Amino acid sequence: MSLKYFLNEEAKQRGIEFSAPRPCDAGFDLPSLREVVIGRGMMAAIRTGIHLSIPEGCVGIVKDRSSIALRGGVTAAGVIDSGFRGEVKILMFNLGDSELRLKAGERVAQLLLLRHEGAVGCEEVQILEELGASARGQGGFGSTGK
């Protein structure tokens, strides 16, 4: 199994590279195609110039790079299904105290490929108790780490 990729013309002209991670690394680095400035408290869709063919049975998850997160840049909405062939874009928020400047070609996020067994069925129940009991119950937002 391998991840196939295509660099669009602009990415090729700008010298954008995409390659497999080092043997012990978990993710593929994703670069910014162009220089991007994200204002404090703002978000941007960052183009990469990369199109992927994620193998069936896998999903791509876009996550933060620690060096960018340290500067305030965090990712969101990062699920890429195996059937998607469009350009990969990174939705990034700037949670820092000043504007976030990303250079063209800078590695700004990472892509993790995770195996999955496919979608499961979905069935509506008519009363809450039909969901069944669990040890956790309705506890949320830190209830398991008291």
Shape: globular
Largest beta-sheet details: 4 strands, antiparallel
Strand order of the largest sheet: 1-4-8-6
What is the radius of gyration computed over CA atoms, rounded to a whole number of angstroms? 19 Å
Strand content: 35-45%
The count of helical stretches stands at 2
Helix content: under 10%
Low-confidence stretches: none
| Average predicted confidence as pLDDT | 92
User: What is CATH's topology name?
Assistant: Deoxyuridine 5'-Triphosphate Nucleotidohydrolase, Chain A
What number of structural domains do the residues give? 1
Features of this protein?
146 residues, mainly beta, Deoxyuridine 5'-Triphosphate Nucleotidohydrolase, Chain A, 4-stranded antiparallel β-sheet, 2 helices, 10 strands, 7% helix, 38% strand, globular
Molecular structure report:
This protein has two helices and ten strands. The model has no long low-confidence stretch (mean pLDDT 92). It has one domain: Deoxyuridine triphosphatase (dUTPase) (Deoxyuridine 5'-Triphosphate Nucleotidohydrolase, Chain A), CATH 2.70.40. The chain has 146 residues and is mainly beta. 7% of the residues lie in helices and 38% in strands.
Summarize the structure.
The protein has 146 residues and is mainly beta. 7% of the residues lie in helices and 38% in strands. The strands form three sheets. Strands 1-4-8-6 form a four-stranded antiparallel sheet. Strands 2-10-5-7 form a four-stranded antiparallel sheet.
